[in-house]
Each structure stands twice: as C-alpha cells, then as structure tokens.
Amino acid sequence: MQLEQTPSETMAELILDEELDKQDPLRHLMDLDGGLVEAPVSSTQALTFLPKQSHSVEDGGMLRLSFSHDLIDVPRPLEITLAVDASPGCGGIAWPAGQILATYLIQQGSGYLKNKNVVELGAGTGLVGLVAGQLPDAKVWITDQEPLLPIMHKNVTINNLTSNVLVAKLDWGVPVPSTIPKPEIILAADCVYFEPAFPLLVQTLDELADKDTEILFCYKKRRKADKRFFGILKKKFRWEEVMDDPNRPIYNKEAITLMRLFKR
Ligand SMILES: C[S@@+](CC[C@H](N)C(=O)[O-])C[C@H]1O[C@@H](n2cnc3c(N)ncnc32)[C@H](O)[C@@H]1O
C-alpha cells in the first residue's frame, strides 16, 4: 500500500531535489554509473513497450525502428533507420517519449500533416520529425542545439528524407532563425529535464506559436521540480492530455503523458 505524503514531506523532498540538482542538473538522466538512464541501444525494454513497434540494433550504433499501421498511402510498415550516439549528449539516443509521439502521429492518419509546416524542438536524433516526414506532403524542420546537428543530418540522409525534412539549429530562448517558418504544428518529446532551460523552452514555444498552432508535447515526469516548468508554461499556454491514443494506459504507467498545448 502506498503511504500518503504530508505536505511537509513533499516540501522536504523538493528542497533536497533542488539541492542535488544544483550539484548536477542532469542527474535525472543518469544512472548510478554515470551513464544515460534508459539508454535504448543497450536496453531492449525501453523500445518495446508500445504495440505495433519493433526495433533491432545493428552494428555501428544503428537502430532500425518499424511502425506497423493500416494507412494505404504510407510505406507499410513505416521504417526508420536511426544513427544513435550518446557522445553529443542525451539527445543522441532515442527516448521513449519520442517513440510515443511518433506513433501517435502515424495514428492520426495520412492527411494529418498534409501541406503543414511542422517544427520539432529538441529533436535529438530526429526520430519524431523523420516519421512526420514520411507522412504525405509534410514539410518538417527538425531542430536542436549545435552538437546534435551532425547526427540529425546523418539520419535525414540515411532515411532519404532530404527533400522534406530540413535540419536547423534552434537554441531555446534565442530568437528563432528566419529560415524556420511559422509552423502549423510544433512537436516536442522529452524536453523537460533541465531546470535552467524551462523558461527558455517556454520562450521559444511562445515565439513560434499563435492561437491556431497545434503543439503536441510528450512529457516524461522525472521529479517534483518539473512542476516549475508547468508554472512558467501556464502563463502563456493552457493544455489538455491527449485522450484518444490507445497506447495511453501503457505509457502513463511509465510516467509519460502526451499533451496538446494551446496558446492563451
Ligand atoms: C531527452 S532529449 C530528447 C530527444 C528527442 N526529442 C527524443 O525524444 O528522443 C532532450 C533534447 O532537448 C535538447 N535541448 C536541451 N536544451 C536545449 C536548448 N536550450 N535548446 C535546444 N534544444 C535543447 C537536447 O539537445 C536533446 O536533444
């Protein structure tokens, strides 16, 4: 049986969390040996909890992901070959939230992204944007910080998506480069994990979005202090949980939530 926490216990945990975060802001992504937690290349469990998905790891850090679906005008199954490499940082591996968001995009059907500008923030390997780029007539920009750009370029090329998936540097909190158009859809997976970046991410969302922009935001809860992010977010956005995803009960168990954000 789970014991209820008193408010003072919760506050004490929050304070301790923050003290540890000051010493190591990325500790929630690390395991006890200092490696990345949930690193999917070496762990089969992280990539297989969703049905209709399979993966295999090939030599040289290549991951092959296969998404089965019933769409007639999208390759069946939809396959992505992903170069993964933890050396440029946590974005260099494929996180479960990204796979959940990618799977949801496919479920939305082949008309969902038609003729839409789609911008992915904190794309890492680019998995979500690469899947978006295989849906008919989507125009996709996958964005991240400088160190991730080579692996994103590599993944776009490997998957023959150079004509409709573009790679761009986009640091949260700095003005969005003019080469990135105003998107109709913004995608973000597992981008809440580093407290100093919380206001920067909200600033970039605010700059990119207007009242008609659809924002799909897949969030993995790692610590109590994450609520600070939502405290900042709520000044500019409201949100609701995506309820029509049949995989929701599975990933909710992993403390992952898929949300739609709307600009106030
Ligand atoms: C946990 S990874 C998730 C990667 C990918 N979305 C996925 O689901 O596999 C978080 C990503 O956010 C990016 N990121 C962190 N801070 C950023 C910032 N200030 N500006 C742009 N991207 C940032 C990281 O480089 C990394 O790729």
From TrEMBL:
Matching InterPro entries: EFM6, Methyltransf_16, SAM-dependent_MTases_sf
Q: Which GO terms describe its cellular component?
A: cytoplasm
Q: What is its main location?
A: cytoplasm
Compartments reported by the entry: Cytoplasm
Task: Report residues binding S-adenosyl-L-methionine.
Answer: 95, 122-124, 144, 172, 189
Q: Name one GO biological process term.
A: methylation
Give UniProt keywords alphabetically.
Cytoplasm, Methyltransferase, S-adenosyl-L-methionine, Transferase
| Gene3D superfamilies listed in its UniProt record | Vaccinia Virus protein VP39
A GO MF annotation of the entry reads: protein-lysine N-methyltransferase activity
Taxonomic superkingdom = Eukaryota
Residue ranges annotated as coiled coil are none
Q: Which Pfam family, an example, fits this chain?
A: Methyltransf_16
Report the EC number(s), separated by commas if there are several. Answer: 2.1.1.-
The record's PANTHER family line, in alphabetical order, gives:
HEPATOCELLULAR CARCINOMA-ASSOCIATED ANTIGEN, PROTEIN-LYSINE METHYLTRANSFERASE C42C1.13
Function as written in the Swiss-Prot or TrEMBL entry:
S-adenosyl-L-methionine-dependent protein-lysine N-methyltransferase that methylates elongation factor 1-alpha.
The UniProt family comment states:
Belongs to the class I-like SAM-binding methyltransferase superfamily. METTL21 family. EFM6 subfamily.
Can you say what this protein is called?
Protein-lysine N-methyltransferase EFM6
| Gene that encodes it | EFM6
